[in-house]
Amino acid sequence: MSDVLLLSRFQFAITVFYHFLFVPLTIGLIVLIAWMETQHVRTKNPLYRQMADFWGKLFAINFVLGVVTGITMEFQFGTNWSEYSKYMGDIFGSPLAIEALVAFFLESTFMGIWLFGKDKISPKLRAFSIWMVALGTNISALWIITANGFMQNPVGYIERNGRIELQNFWEVVTNPYAWHMFVHTVVSCYIVGAFFVMAVSAWHLLRKQHVEFFEKSFKYALILGLIAATATPFIGHKSASFAAKMQPAKGAALEAVWETKESLPFHIIQIPDPENERNIVEFLTIPKLGSYFYTHSFDGKVVGFDQIPKDERPNVNIVFYSFRLMVALGLYFVALFWYGFYLYRKNKLVESRRFLKLVMYSVLLPYVAINAGWVVAEVGRQPWTVYGLMRTAEAVSPISLSQIVFSLVSLVLFYTILLIADVYLMLKYAKKGPYTSTATKGGEIQHVS
Amino acid sequence: MSHETVAIIWFGLWGLIWTIYFVLDGYTLGTGMLFPFLARNRQERNQLQEAVGPFWGGNEVWLITAGGATFAAFPAVYADLFSFLYTPMMLILFALFFRAAGLEFMHKDDAPLWQKSWKWAFTISSFALALLFGVAFANLFYGLKIGPSGYEGTLFSLLHPYGLLGGLLFISLFAVSGALWVMLKTVGDVAERAYKVARPASVVATVVLSLFFVATSNRTPLFNNFTKAPILWIVPALAFVCALLMLLFVWQKRIGLAFTNICLTIFTLMATGFIGMFPNMLPSRIDNEYSTTLFEAAGSELNLKIMLGVAIVMVPIVVGYQLWSYKLFKEKITKETAKGYQ
């Protein structure tokens, strides 16, 4: 692999990970804030407004970095993957343009209205604005995943004039691969948002400060998280079995299946050995369950690597362990949310210090899980950049080594500065709690009216 | 509608989206460039933050849309433009990072070093963006060093006198736009200081614009299209007239009219450039046979038609709610009520 290709792949991976540190919280948290604003309209209870203000402030800090790291992604297809862009642009460019027109304008404009208008506009307009932001962020996920879905499962195209051209737009937007990924991603983002709110709330509840405020916030997040986390194993399972059907190589990597088999068993503990095309350890085996996962039939046939040419296989270890990690964390979240729900029903939430601490220390795990999921999706598709149509090695720009070194080093440096500033501010304002800021705001509201 | 027609319409739309971006971000970048010179204390900085705060994000999406539209409608131009101008594109990207973070993070901590760093990050990035975009678009008007095997230049081959003049033109136009915007949106000392900047800046901008047109006529093939269809001369003529009117209104202190005219100047300037480039999108300075025309770069007919439909529906909606947001924040910002980014 050439150095430019390798470094371009590094750069893409690093920038997309950075971007995806901010995006899931944006998508998840905004739904909770919109819900709080709606409750404020319905009940006129100022507590909900304080909640929206407090969480909205954390949202805004996170949002701006989601925006700036997103621009990098849009530029990068052209700067670093120009051959890809030329070949695929006729289909891949449109969802990005639609994303900007339909989603980015909506979220950015209404974020500005909410941020600067929230003390001037009516509660109804506040709620409307924040719902528009929520709509924008969620729609943006749909369009970018529509673009990614085409890379995973190309549909509605024709190869003509030396490139891929659009033949059926409807097929592109109804691509089942994309919709599976969209639902799975968005629901996972709700888990990230819920965890974030619960963890910050737990920090304050452990200190017995602003108890009413953070108990309520915790409850809202708990409900959203409970629904999302409970649905995720089913959604994720559908998404993975569909992916395995469409991309047998990715499918074989998920469970490191070396030989094509009927009645494939499932090993709870398994260590693959890609060198020798076997598993070193297969332990705690459940017969036939593997086949069921892939085919919904205990005797179903599962395609193994013996049917896949060596140069069309992804890195098995990366895909296998990322998938296991994601699934294990997903199941942990289900348990945690249900236990939290049990404590809440028993009215023991605030006293359960161990549970609150567990939530607090688990706050980064949903980020790990959701990024592991994207590793499965993206590394699992290799060596293809567009499945079956274009290899990643053919997609890279004809740029020089010094150019890619310059951009990679600068991006890592600047992103690290931004990330440090972001984490510092998030921690600072999360710990500060709601009252100091709302006290001054209350004063100003009187001043204005 | 034939493939060629819809491709030409998309060329027009492509130019229009870039133009709207420069008109809108022009005042934001201008405010950014002048920021530390207009505001002397935190309250005044709050005023300036609030003057652009509700709008800058929505304005920047016009840039993202311009990028997306280039990708969707002219994939080959998107791919070549961004990879040929790799280093300047990266610099634009870095400046966009710190423009946004600088503006929004500046007052989120009270440490003087923190505030100073982000304040200057905001200012320098705004300045860099105006310069880089000016140089980049002047080079598009001038022609790039594109040969048979692609781009043959470097970052430094963009920095010829005409390119630098383009950078200076954007800086001066945006500075005027920013100063006038601050006067429109605020009252008090910042507005008065902005007026002190606006007067000399408007003179500089008009002079640089005149020089730029002279240089364009002497150094670039841009005006050939105008000679072919003389009616088009009305567009650069309007740019010049609007600049003069802007100058007049600045000196008469009729700020609303002056701002309208600086926006029209930027609009007609960009329109002049895009009309002059037609049908090239990536003109080669070495030989026109290496240029990429809009017809060569255009996406498929179906894609262009669908995207045209999307644009016809969505652009008016977007313009509608963005106008509404300007109406919502039409009150002047005073030192006492300004909150800025807290």
Q: What do you see in this structure?
A:
Chain B: This is Cytochrome d ubiquinol oxidase subunit 2. Chain B: Its main location: membrane. Chain B: One of its GO terms (biological process) is aerobic electron transport chain. The complex is a heterodimer of chains A (449) and B (342). Chain A is mainly α. Chain A has one domain. Helices cover 74% and strands 8% of the residues of chain A. Chain A contains 15 helices and 8 strands. Chain A has helices at residues 3-43, 46-80, 82-117, 123-152, 169-173, 176-206, 211-246, 248-254, 289-295, 316-345, 353-361, 365-379, 392-395, 401-432, 435-448; strands spanning 157-160, 163-166, 261-262, 266-273, 278-286, 301-302, 384-386, 390-391. In chain A, a hairpin with a 3-residue loop joins β7 (384-386) and β8 (390-391). The radius of gyration of chain A is 23 Å and the shape is globular. The termini of chain A are far apart. Chain B is 77% helix and 3% strand. Chain B has helices spanning 3-38, 42-73, 75-84, 86-105, 112-142, 161-185, 189-219, 224-228, 234-251, 255-277, 294-297, 301-328; strands spanning 146-147, 150-151, 280-282, 292-293. In chain B, α1 runs parallel beside α12, α2 crosses α3 and α5 (112-142) packs across α6 (161-185). In chain B, the strands form 2 sheets. A two-stranded antiparallel ribbon of chain B has the order 1-2. Chain B contains 12 helices and 4 strands. Chain B starts with a helix and ends in a 14-residue tail after the last helix. The radius of gyration of chain B is 20 Å and the shape is globular. Chain B has 342 residues and is mostly helical. Chain B has one domain. The model of chain B has no long low-confidence stretch (mean pLDDT 95). In chain B, 58% of the residues are buried.
